[in-house]
Amino acid sequence: MTAASASAGKAVPTVKHLINGAWVESRASEWRDIVNPATQAVLARVPLANADEVGAAVAAAQAAFATWKTTPIGARYRIMLKFQALIRANIGRIAATLSAEQGKTLPDAEGDIIRGLEVVEHACSIGTLQLGEFAENVAGGVDTYTLRQPIGVCAGITPFNFPAMIPLWMFPMAIVCGNTFVLKPSEQDPLSTVELVELALEAGVPPGVLNVIHGGREAVDALCVHPDVKAISFVGSTAVGTHVYRLASEHGKRVQSMMGAKNHAVVMPDANRTQTINALLGAAFGAAGQRCMATSVAVLVGKSREWLPAMVEKAKTLKVGSGQTPGVDVGPVVSRAAKARVLSLIEAGEKQGAELLLDGRDVKVDGFPDGNFIGPTVFAKVRTDMSIYTDEIFGPVLVTLEVDTLDEAIALVNANPFGNGTGIFTQSGAVARKFQSEIDVGQVGINIPIPVPVPYFSFTGSRGSKLGDLGPYGKQVVQFYTQTKTVTSRWFDDEPDTGVNTTISLK
């Protein structure tokens, strides 16, 4: 289903669940509209599944696991090879859908897909990623080795801000490890996720191995408590992520929760001024600031505070508009509720005494009078007790703080409860090394504002940004989606009776 299919004058389509390989109409009593954030046009209606529908999806996944877990690794990764080729062939179409339902610019929507595609490509290496270990003759004629085996039915709960990348972080790695999967996309923008799932089926994912359920809290809670769900991956807000982690953990499941953030960029006076300003503004205002890895705080050290006027003037040049309009830099936020929340935080920042250097509240976009637009907004003289600093704004708002030394900057960042990502801009190797060593944040960028690692590594957010000890994708997620079985074996030749050994020794 594409956004174009819901054009004006036609019946609004409904989004279907995927259960056991078939797209089925929901029996839900509650539905919500999927709305284009630039126009308020209703693209489709999505059901809020009840526990019975969630149970049907889990049952399909549980039944499929019996055969999928024994499917050879080569057969699994050949499906991933075909899947990645299909994604590449359909990037333009999926990006158009994603832009229409989420608001991102078309180039950013393509980037969303491509970063997820990288994980699919890495999944094609499962033959080496899922290797066990072997030690010969650990005692007299005794060998020990480990097996990495799938754990069963896994579930994924994904947010609105990356409807392509984050689902692709989850289900490809889970199923290529031999598990089956139930995916619950964001109810705000599931259309592009559905298009990716359709391609996965086309690539050869068998019925029941991948299922999709749409919904809100009832569906989330049903997944968290279902006895056949063994692991849950979550990306989203801190409030929901904490709830998911606690509820699912109480019911004996593995959980990884990637949650909120307040990412800082420390700017040293010796940094390349032009490149640093460009990087900061791109990281603060790209995707309208709706990234858990957005740079929402700039910590200006020493004379770099003199760059503020240039930062504001550069921010004024960014074009705000519909994500599907060529040349646009900043699209709309995802909903009217999201816009209202961002505007209330900007107002709170003013009332609490921050200096509003650039106000994006009254931006107007020709031809889109009803869009959820907010222009780039910049605050100075921000204190750490202000709500624009303590809260994750999730909008195109950059707050700036000023300190005199690198040590003060490190202390400021480390005092913040979140630990998703941070960066430093400098031309000094010694400064960069000191920063990476002393900073207490899980992902560090050096002259890189959004330090999301490539899939050969793992996403390693920390502290208040993460619950669970294993991150999504990379080597860590193979550990998350598999269980280690250790085998100790001995094979006997014909030999004389050595008697009964009642000790724990392996002699």
UniProtKB/TrEMBL annotation:
Gene3D superfamilies, A to Z: Aldehyde Dehydrogenase, Chain A, domain 1, Aldehyde Dehydrogenase, Chain A, domain 2
One MF term in the entry's GO annotations: methylmalonate-semialdehyde dehydrogenase (acylating, NAD) activity
Keyword Transferase: no
Keyword Oxidoreductase among record annotations: yes
Principal EC category: oxidoreductase
Keywords recorded for this protein, A-Z: NAD, Oxidoreductase
Record-listed E.C. numbers: 1.2.1.27
Domain Aldehyde dehydrogenase: 23-487
GO biological process entries: L-valine catabolic process; thymine catabolic process
PANTHER family: MALONATE-SEMIALDEHYDE DEHYDROGENASE (PTHR43866), METHYLMALONATE-SEMIALDEHYDE DEHYDROGENASE [ACYLATING], MITOCHONDRIAL (PTHR43866:SF3)
Record-stated family: Belongs to the aldehyde dehydrogenase family.
Name of the protein: methylmalonate-semialdehyde dehydrogenase (CoA acylating)
Species per Swiss-Prot/TrEMBL record: Pandoraea terrae
